[in-house]
Amino acid sequence: MTFARFDRYVERHARSVIERLQAMCRMPSVAARGTGMRATAEAVEQLMQRAGAGTRSFKLGSGFPIIFGECGSGPRCFLVYGHYDVQPVGQLTSWSSGPFSATVVDGKLYARGAANSKGDLVARLAAVEAYQKSFGKLPICLRFIISGEDGIGSPSVFRFASEQADLLRAEGCIWDDGYKDSQERLVISLGFKGITFLELRVHGARTDLHSKWGAIVPNPAWRLVQALATLTSPKGVITIDGFSSHIAPISAEDAEALKHITLDEAELKREFRITHWLRGMRGHTLVKEHIFGPTCTICGIQTGHTEAGPKTVLPSTAMARLDFRLVPDLTPALVCDLLRKHLDLRGFHDIEIIELGNSPLAKSSAQSSVARAAIESAPEIYGAQAIVYPLDPSSGPVGAICGANDPPTPVVSFGTSYEGSNPHGPDENLRIEDFLQNIKFFGRVIHHLGQQGKQHRSGIRSSSALVLDKV
User: Fold this and answer.
1) pLDDT exceeds cutoff 60 at 12
2) How far apart are CA 415 and CA 417, in angstroms?
3) Which residues lie closer than 8 Å to 93 by C-beta, 6 or more apart?
4) pLDDT of 174-226, one tens digit each?
5) Residue 458: pLDDT above 80?
6) In CATH, what number is assigned to the domain containing residue 241?
7) What is the DSSP string of 304-336?
8) What pTM value is reported for the model?
9) Distance CA 435, CA 451 (A)
10) 225-232 LR contacts (CB < 8 Å, sep 24+)
11) Phi and psi torsions of 372, nearest 5°
């Protein structure tokens, strides 16, 4: 089947689809602040219905709605995950234009959430609409699960996965994270690192004191800093007792995949404005550590007086937030247990550990049907083979969605962004050309999955004929 008709439809309706994306990006759906969430959820449901999906909204407890949509038919079903919430905008002065103005400048749409991940959502629904307008009904069943809590730990997603496991029973899952690298190569991932997000708290005097008491009153800020210093070495190696012994060796399949991955080190250092990588790593060692290395990251520290003007105080509390990105065979529960024992052994019994959120890792094979559909469809649209990451360095509620049933659902992930999209940072942006290209790509993935089903059914019929012939 030729896709000329599909591509013409996408190109004729490009302006309309871009306007849909701009409208979505102008909705300030910041989950951490709770702003604009209901209106955005309703807009997502309307977009799904426009694409021909039957929809249902799940509001679990006090959480933000999960919008569920189903379209297509047939025995083969695939999940499509996305989210409509966005990260806080940070300092407005760091943005070249309003973070929710959705301005297009030099072929790039600037807005919080454009790359992460409203662009992916609008592109996929546009592809479903274009496919049905061009060829008729979808050859497969697609179930969209669109969360409003991706940026705050996805508590509703975990509950949804537990209570609605039957809705998540599928042959594969398409996630919403991916980009073109600095060499314009599409990156496809076959899984995600796990994550555990923690807060460490230390308490001192009942209130902040004049710093004249510093010679005799314990300082929780120093206490916290001293504890944090035991978690990694000066070179950035995680030194928590027993941590490294739980990391699984890299499989032969993954080791082979790593050989085909490169990082544009010079360009990335220029983009990040740094002079070197940790421990002087480079080449294959850098790639291996980026993909299969666990992390222990201090995300923020809060204590004492940090506002304008001098104020000499001895803080009453100190707090640090850390995230650990987890690789096989590390789990959130294991890391929390190891951290507690590590701190206790060094006399830091008084440091409180608060779990803020976590998600297990999810990892799949390149041989799954959903992975093959993405990998084999890429050259037609992108002009070259995609770069396949066996594990994406980022994290999300993938383990909850894909682990809701046994065996776990295979996952593949790709997206609309590029190396300079700067998700989570100021001037987050999406190139319009990439956005439209991804619509065409998703249409081919749908078709490829449908063709797999036909080949499978044909193989069954052939096998049955052989059996009958032998009888």
Assistant:
1) yes
2) 6
3) none
4) 999 899 998 899 999 999 999 999 999 999 999 999 999 999 999 999 999 99
5) no
6) 3.30.70.360
7) S--SSS---EE-SEEEEEEEEEE-TT--HHHHH
8) 0.88
9) 25
10) 225/318, 227/200, 227/202, 227/343, 227/346, 227/348, 227/351, 228/200, 228/298, 228/320, 230/342, 230/343, 230/346, 231/296, 231/322, 231/339, 231/342, 232/296
11) -65, -35
If we measure between CA atoms, which residue out of 193, 254, 159 comes closest to residue 398?
Answer: 193
Report the half-sphere exposure of 352 (CA within 13 A, side-chain side). 12
In the chain, the amino acid numbered 347 is G
Rounded-to-5 percentages of helix, strand, coil across the chain: 40, 20, 35
Res 454 pLDDT > 70: no
In a domain, 372, yes or no: yes
- In the block, which residue shows the tokens 């036909």? 454
Asked, for residue 283, whether it belongs to a domain, the answer is no
CATH number at residue 65: 3.40.630.10
Secondary structure (DSSP) of 48-68: HHHTT-EEEEE--TTSPPEEE
Residue 457 has pLDDT above 60, yes or no: no
334 and 224, same structural domain? yes
* Phi and psi at residue 340, to the nearest 5°: -60, -45
**Phi/psi at 127 (5° precision):** -65, -40
Residue span of the structural domain in which 335 resides: 194-247+293-359
Residues ≥6 apart with Cβ < 8 Å to 340: 353
DSSP-derived 3-state class of residue 108: strand
Residue 1: is its pLDDT beyond 80? Answer: no
d(CA 129, CA 384): 26
